[in-house]
# Entry
Amino acid sequence: MSASSSSNEITYHFEHTDSTKFIWRTFWILSALTVAELGIGLLIYTIHKGAHPNPTYVLAFKGMVCILTLAKAYYIVSVFMHLGDEIRNMIMTIVVPLCLFIWFIAAFLWDGTSWKNLRNEYNGNAPIERVEKAATEKGAKD
Amino acid sequence: MSTAAVTQGTKWWSGGRSPFNASYGKVMMWYFLMSDAFTFGAFLISYGTIRFSQNHWVDPNHVFNSFPFAGHANLPLAFVSLMTFILIASSVTMVLAVHEGHKMNKAGVEKYMLWTILGGLCFLSCQAWEWTHLLTGHHEVLVNGQIELWNTTVSHNPFGPEVMFNGKEVATPGPIAFGSYFFEITGFHGFHVFSGVIINVIMYIKTKMNHFEQRGHYEMIEKAGLYWHFVDLVWVFVFLCFYLI
# Structure
């Protein structure tokens, strides 16, 4: 590699190997993860087609797909985007703010579920005992 | 490792050097991508919130089950896996271009940039086909006691829960949020792919014109590469949220 400096701000250069082995290894890892995701996707499809889809299995398989996706994201960011080669302070300024997503996802999906429950309770197209409960509450108000 | 030895005694924060050991442009590209990640994240989380708030959502294996030139064959996940592999492959050629740039190999950079641009164009064509298929494909829907033919748009969703009508199962209108979110998020992602292709074309032309050779380094290819990989990264999540779960 030429020792050309891209900018005088940079103190040292990463050692770039001439080998492209790490690139192809990551390519195969990403492909394998994608194939695994597709396999689970087709499994969910088959479960859905069955007479009585088991919601617990469906949820478990969907969770597995989410974990595989996070693994793919890790390999893309760490190897392809070379974030793994940056110094620790740089990595932390990217990764720490992204932790906001933990709250972001949990809070909003929770909110969506609560919205559904409230609507079912007061809309009339919910299970019968809930409709009755809503009706008596209304009656009490009148 | 020599890098660790350098890190040990370096005063990163005393000025005169980048405390992150990266050029201004590269650091800012990372922060731009982080903010873009929040934009996409907000879109996808908003989609999730609306989806969780509905009693019924569309079955992606039913909506996305076609393949170009395959007629009405039921092929769930097939086309979208092709799109995913196109994007992964173009990510690999991009990282190979960056690698050739580190070696100051102009011909190699040009070759891999062309492959990356080609991958991006293939992906965009696939997306154009998929949108056309959704916007022009008509499905029978039971609306106010009558069968109507609906396509999938931001205001029409023909994939609602099925009911029995005149002895056969017919779909009813589904939540319109499906079309809105699908076209919004895949459209915003497609726009990123499009701008990524434009950036890559500019980088290819600049390589061809010896700009980076004169500058002595191919860091611009790295920055364009960061953007391109980010586009692939977003697709990983779009693929998860719209097609897999």
Q: What stands out?
A: The helical segments of chain B are 2-9, 24-52, 60-63, 78-102, 106-136, 177-208, 211-215, 219-244.
